[in-house]
């Protein structure tokens, strides 16, 4: 509309110019300006067409598919998720993927997102050693910039929130504290990831479960058996393994990006919107999913000086190796163990989409072990297999990996007292439920469970003393 109005005004000016030297110069400048406007308009139209093209395809056969079938009887499935509100992608997930989920006996995730122990273990993993604060470990200028940026975010939080969020009773101060309230006790790498997630777009999406969490809630609602193929430490420790100079570089780059965004001099090259578009369009080759799966931003940038570009490449290689390749190998082997342990059960493995794409994927691990795994397109019929039986409880009876199975029947191990004090303070912001309601529910559930454990512990100690 704006371009059309300017073109209309420009045409009238061109028709009424007098022909003198100064008017000719003005006419040439105006013609050039009109050419640029037309070019911009054409680009905008093409971009709009590209952005909406996949949304026009609502037929089942044309939808994206992030489903793979593990050929056995009954069949099992791999399903690729992304870390965005499920409402943004649910309509583009084919019915056969949803049917595979419904028909499966047991649903497995990377982590058990509804288990209180997962929450408490993630909190502990993110914290600095006892008695240390961020101010003690960060260079002074970075600490000041970080503090200034978080003050800005806190100030803006209210204007970033949606009417829908306010309608659900969310307050800006509560939301800020839920995400960043304990930032001075966190390790720098987790603060970097926290800052990266404190953007207007991400804040607007809070309160709606991300796709993998939504599936976990649905599995719980349908009373399906659930489990996890990883321990919290296996996701958390690689992040803590980055060396100090690399962490400082990553935090500095993240702050620079946010400061430039605030100043209006930068546009994020790869946004959540891009991620959603790639997913909904069924882009199975995009490198974007690896960064969503590892939940680590990409620092490689052509504008960096050579020595900093090397650091960025080292960080990227480290995370690809530790958070994608090594985990794929471990997850693939545990999937194989589960399939062998429960041959008459149908599994639905919902992992980050990046674990199924590129090189050394979870699928590659299964194929090496002799399994046939095929990509399942949107139109294919789901075969339930001959062996459908009632869902039975999955226990931790397997001797090979008792520690990483987290089922609904199991209780978390006791934590040390000083860790428990820290865990009560705040829920971690990353690798965790985006649903505020669920966060509160899990927090209450955890505190209730801990009280019971403390009561049992007191009784046990009393009994010990009595017998002596």
UniProtKB/TrEMBL annotation:
Cofactor needs: Mn(2+); Co(2+)
GO molecular function (one): metallopeptidase activity
Signal peptide: 1-47
Biased composition (Basic residues): 447-459
Record EC number: 3.4.-.-
Co-factor binding comment: Divalent metal cations. Mn(2+) or Co(2+).
Pfam family, one: TraB_PrgY_gumN
Membrane topology: Single-pass type I membrane protein
Enzyme class of the recorded protein, top EC level: hydrolase
Location in the cell: Cell membrane; Membrane
Sorted UniProt keywords: Cell membrane, Glycoprotein, Hydrolase, Membrane, Metal-binding, Metalloprotease, Protease, Signal, Transmembrane, Transmembrane helix, Wnt signaling pathway
Transport recorded as keyword: no
Residue ranges of the region described as Disordered: 447-468
Family annotation (PANTHER family): METALLOPROTEASE TIKI, METALLOPROTEASE TIKI1
Function: Metalloprotease that acts as a negative regulator of the Wnt signaling pathway by mediating the cleavage of the N-terminal residues of a subset of Wnt proteins. Following cleavage, Wnt proteins become oxidized and form large disulfide-bond oligomers, leading to their inactivation.
Family stated for the protein in its record: Belongs to the TIKI family.
Name of the protein in its database record: Metalloprotease TIKI
Originating organism: Pogona vitticeps
